[in-house]
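Support case: user asked for a sample of complex input and structure output to validate their parser. Sending the pair below.
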Amino acid sequence: MSITRAGCAALDSADPLRGFRAEFVLPENVVYMLGNSLGALPRRTIEAVSHTVTAEWGRDLGQSWNTAGWWDLPEVIGDRIGNLIGAGPGTVLTGESTSVSIFKVMSAAVRLRPGRRTVVVESEGFPTDRYAVQGLAAGFDLNVRDFGPEGSLADSLDDDVAVVLLSHVDYRTGALRDMAADTAAAHAAGALVIWDLCHSAGALPVEVGAADFAVGCTYKYLNGGPGAPSYLYCAPAHLAEAEPVLCGWHGHAAPFAFEADYRPATGVRRFGAGTPPILSMSALGASLELWDKVDIRSVRAKSVALTELFIALTEPLGLDLATPRDPAGRGSQISFRHEHGYPIMRALLDHGVHGDFRAPDIMRFGFTPLFLRYVDVYDAADTLAEIIGKGIWQDERYQRRVTVT
Amino acid sequence: MSITRAGCAALDSADPLRGFRAEFVLPENVVYMLGNSLGALPRRTIEAVSHTVTAEWGRDLGQSWNTAGWWDLPEVIGDRIGNLIGAGPGTVLTGESTSVSIFKVMSAAVRLRPGRRTVVVESEGFPTDRYAVQGLAAGFDLNVRDFGPEGSLADSLDDDVAVVLLSHVDYRTGALRDMAADTAAAHAAGALVIWDLCHSAGALPVEVGAADFAVGCTYKYLNGGPGAPSYLYCAPAHLAEAEPVLCGWHGHAAPFAFEADYRPATGVRRFGAGTPPILSMSALGASLELWDKVDIRSVRAKSVALTELFIALTEPLGLDLATPRDPAGRGSQISFRHEHGYPIMRALLDHGVHGDFRAPDIMRFGFTPLFLRYVDVYDAADTLAEIIGKGIWQDERYQRRVTVT
């Protein structure tokens, strides 16, 4: 039974999420499979940012810290994100970059396990996660233990392990870890666990459950905009004692008392430090409004259907699938290993299909169910077949490397 | 010889900076003396942010990391700021909050003086500076030594002092330190020095000179917008060896190689960590374009004239001036200590004069020469006289505290 474009169009017509595509600005003749890197622009964001610039800043000026609620945005937006990851009110904070959030929670977590001097990170984890931990470890004289994708987490744990940092979905392969099982394994060894939700929140149901901490970015499946602030989660059990080593006035118990000494705020606010970038926060806040109407189970169901469709359509190409074949074991992306992955992805882009390349050899396609259609997936597979089949990728112009891929 | 409003209007007509006011959005009937806290909205910023949202993000999507130069913004904008603080190209980086920047440079500075375990900070410094250092010191087991405003810096130094963190302009009193002299004193004791330029860059000529590091915020006199990213400066002599403890992929030598281990970039880029908030960066970039046409010496001359005018006009009120009387010893603000400072500032705001209150008793007025006029200063003084003279501030509604003042 062959898959036809008309069949895909029929799936789009029956899609319970079909109404959401109109909420986004998407260029004509583009199949955007890069929503796992930078999400598309929600239409409502245009008006929201404009309002923040001209009315809140331009007209109301510094008063907007009160009147527009700027001061409370890190927690207000945090609570909205909490709804997407199974975290209760007052446990999620937004405002600074993912690297900074990782550094904050890792430094706080290590302090909760005094006497233990080792942190476990994935050998194939997203580099900034590794770099943040390596920097902290060098400064605080901790041991960093690498944990490979093939190994068992339990085998990497012992009574010197203070904290384990894991990615819910692997950024290269799209492999999905079992959060509950890994969290239990870490706890069984007396370690705390931090989850990186960058590639899962907004793409599939996430439940922080017994996790101690989590961090995530908002510019991928949450469509918060380029460089949108990250979020961090702290389990209620740790809120009273967690103290990140990176402190600032937004995390103080009484920021406008201008006290000489640091005193952490009650609750997740204690993870605040610097003043958050309000224009970027405004865009993020607008994008999150969309989620009030979204059933995340429908998102996951469509994500599985779209990725299954893409695997089926590209099967004749004989590509080396880097993503787990079982949909239960992957997030919302499909990756192939290919020695010519770079020029192939450049040629695809030139033909209207946006995906990306991740060194050394990964061709990556993201599936954002809120705006990606079944016909888009059909067209992407068709274009990929043409580019490989006709050797279009061999054109000289696709070999040239650009700074950011 | 009394000062008249007509005389002030004449000064405005002769002001070489008079053309710049039209570059800003300013509400009718408002005297905005809070530019030292949140600068006003430059008109060009409206279009710039709109372009970034709709064209760069909405239309060009992830390609804008290359095509719109997003990836290079931290250094490109950094170089523009460098022009305002006497720092050469490739020595200034933007992208994260002031608290994070302070943490980064302080952690790098301490490592450049191994064996020395004390850092000196101002007892009256801006709280977030103190908090960032206190957090780092607790984690790194450093001693924090307070240095009072009345003391001599040299007396606070000895051979255990690794780093001194000083504010160029005091946020409460507006007192201006002698950067060259203090830098020399720190160096004479073998210590490094970090300057906080939050309340000076953009308000007066700044020369980093022999300073080792500097940080500053961009939402005050630089009008970058609420929560606009901060900047940090690293002296060329330290660029090859400085290593902040907070690391991330934007600071890596080859960020798109996705290497497993951190390797700092060459140059100031090594201070990068997380992905910068692009919408806020866009606003900052637009605001900085204004400075290409500004002679900072004219800004300083007008700042001195405006602050002298305000002191003269308010003299009959017998207020307790907290700012140095000699203009050479102050930045671009005037502060008074007053036991009823809070309700007075609330009443002023209600009468169209925006200033702010800083606990415990400081009434603060900022002077941004690019948009503040002599007649504005006249009107502000007039309103202040009325509010104090008629006891308007005693009204019950001005006593109520709001979250952010």
